[in-house]
Design a protein that fits this description.
Elements: H1 2-15, H2 18-51, H3 55-66, H4 103-109, H5 120-131
Length: about 140
């Protein structure tokens, strides 16, 4: 009898899918965590939806986050002053404006281009090359 019980325990332990049960439990825990995160997101979105439920709040959100205006209105963006934006930024709209007094020095610093009269094919090619100067 004790040998039969020991054999039954060894067979049960040997074929019992402990690793499969652990793997399934970890998947269940992961799925439960995802469900909790989605429920938290749903609550946050529901709160946001109730906060912009009024027409005035939706209009304010559209103006602040999406720069939308009503028909007949125009949007004006005020750029920051010289000290708050670095010159190395890629967007020229974020760079400070040039003062009117320094425009004359900018115009004088650019070399004057002379125009020559070519045949129509050469003129087309030269205009095309000048238009596509960003390739250089």
């Amino acid at each position: 009898m004790p040998l039969a019980v020991l054999t039954a325990v060894v067979i049960l332990v040997g074929w019992f899918p402990i690793s499969a049960i652990r793997h399934q439990q970890s998947q269940l825990d992961s799925t439960a965590a995802q469900i909790t995160a989605i429920k938290n997101q749903q609550r946050a979105l529901t709160l946001q939806a109730t906060s912009i439920d009024s027409r005035a709040a939706a209009t304010l959100l559209a103006r602040e986050q999406y720069q939308l205006v009503r028909p007949g209105q125009s949007l004006i963006q005020v750029l920051p002053g010289n000290g708050s934006v670095s010159q190395s930024m890629g967007d020229p709209g974020l760079q400070p404006l040039v003062s009117p007094s320094s425009v004359s020095t900018l115009v004088a610093a650019t070399p004057a281009k002379t125009s020559t009269h070519h045949s129509s094919a050469k003129a087309f090619v030269s205009r095309l090359v000048r238009t596509l100067e960003f390739w250089r």
